[in-house]
Specification:
CATH superfamily: Periplasmic binding protein-like II
Number of helices: 6
Strand order of the largest sheet: 2-1-3-7-6
Distance between the termini: 13 Å
Number of strands: 7
Order of helices and strands: HEHEHEHHHEEEE
Largest sheet: 5 strands, mixed
CATH architecture: 3-Layer(aba) Sandwich
Strand content: 15-25%
Radius of gyration: 15 Å
Shape: globular
């Protein structure tokens, strides 16, 4: 269910993400009477948030998935928060971190889900190279700024 929620979330953020497409798992649905399924998200304070609240509201209304957003600081302090939460097993379902050489700091093979089947052909080759370990894609782009932030799925 949470993988489907991740796919739907990233597709709904399509105005912000630099790719388009659909995931394999379409099991995210529900009735308004059912309790919304949570999807925890650890967001970086300096990530562009324009319109995300509307997307999160639509995600809950249409798919019965309730994003639970937590904002963290950026920079070295924010990186330490991510690394500590991953090491302690207390990480959100979805989180933002850097790509490139920083990807190895979070050991994505152990801490993240391989997104190759869902997004491997939908992201730019250069992005895929900076967000993959041993040929497996672990993140998707998150915003349109010059920063190298990415969304990871735990």
């Amino acid at each position: 269910m949470k993988r489907a929620a991740f796919v739907i979330l990233t597709l709904m953020l399509g105005s912000v993400l630099s790719f388009a497409g659909a995931g394999r798992d379409n099991a995210a649905g529900g009735t308004s009477a059912a309790k919304p399924q949570p999807l925890t998200i650890l967001w970086t304070r300096n990530t562009i948030m324009d319109g995300h609240e509307l997307i999160f509201a639509e995600l809950e209304k249409k798919y019965n998935i309730r994003p639970e957003l937590e904002i963290r600081v950026g920079g070295a302090e924010g990186e330490t928060i991510v690394k500590t939460r991953l090491a302690s097993g207390d990480m959100s379902d979805v989180f933002i971190f850097n790509t490139g050489s920083k990807i190895n700091d979070i050991n994505p093979e152990r801490n993240c889900v391989d997104l190759s089947a869902d997004y491997g052909t939908k992201v730019d080759d250069l992005y895929r190279a900076s967000s993959s370990v041993n040929g497996k894609l672990y993140s998707v782009p998150v915003d349109y700024s010059a920063q190298g932030g990415a969304i990871y799925y735990k």
